Amino acid sequence: MKKQVIFSIALIFTLIGCSPNDDSVVTASDRQFIQNAFQRNLLDIQTSQIVRTRGTIEPIKRYSQMLISQASLNQEELLDLARKRDIQMAVELQTTMQQEVSTLLNTPMEKFDETYLAMIIQSRKKVISLYEGQIRDGKDNALREWASKKISGFKKELENAESLVEMNSL
Questions:
Q1: Is 146 exposed, middle or buried (0-12, 13-18, 19+ CB in 10 A)?
Q2: What is the pTM of this model?
Q3: Which among 41, 93, 115, 140 could bridge 107 via Cys, Cβ 3.0 to 4.6 Å?
Q4: For the residues 98-108, what does the mean pLDDT come to?
C-alpha cells in the first residue's frame, strides 16, 4: 500500500511536470521575448534621457520623463521575471539600437524633438507588436499575463506621442 501511494504521488508530479504550459520550462520564444522587451526598454530609457538636455519643447520633456519612469519600472519587473527563469540579460544595447541612440545624439537641435518623437512612435509600435506576439504565442502563462497587463500602457504611450506630434505640428 505504501508503495502504491508513493507511486501515485510520483505519477501525479510527473504528469504535472509534463504540462504543455509549464512555467518552469522556458521556451526559446519566451526567453527571446524577455530579452527583446528588456532591450526595447533600454533603448527607450537612453533616448528619453537625452531629451533632458537636448529637448526644446516642455511637453515632450515631460513625456520623456514619464517614459523613463515607466520603462524603468518595466525593467525591474523584466529582471525579476528573468531571474525567476534563470535567464541572463545583456545590459548593453544591441548594435542596431546603439545606432539609434547615436542618430538621436547627432540630430541637429532644430530637428531633435521631431526625431525623438518619430523614434518613440516607431519603438512603441514595435513594443506593441512584441507584446501582442507574446500574448498570442507565448508558452509561459505568467509572461503572457504580465504582457497582457502592460500592453494598454504602451498603446496609451503611443497615443500620447502621436498627440505631441500633432500639438507641436512636427
A1: buried
A2: 0.83
A3: 115
A4: 96
Which residue in 88, 86, 80 sits closest to 146, CA to CA? Answer: 80
Question: Does 143 fall in a domain?
Answer: yes
- Is 56 in a helix, a strand, or coil? coil
Residue-wise pLDDT for 113-161, tens only, equals: 999 999 999 999 999 999 999 999 999 999 999 999 999 999 999 999 9
CA distance 170 to 152: 25
Q: Does 14 map to a domain?
A: no
What is the number of domains present in the chain? 1
| Packing angle of the helix pair 109-137, 28-54 (nearest 10 deg) | 160
Helix axes 109-137, 95-105, angle to 10 degrees: 150
Cell of 104: 538621436
- CB 37 within 8 Å of CB 131: yes
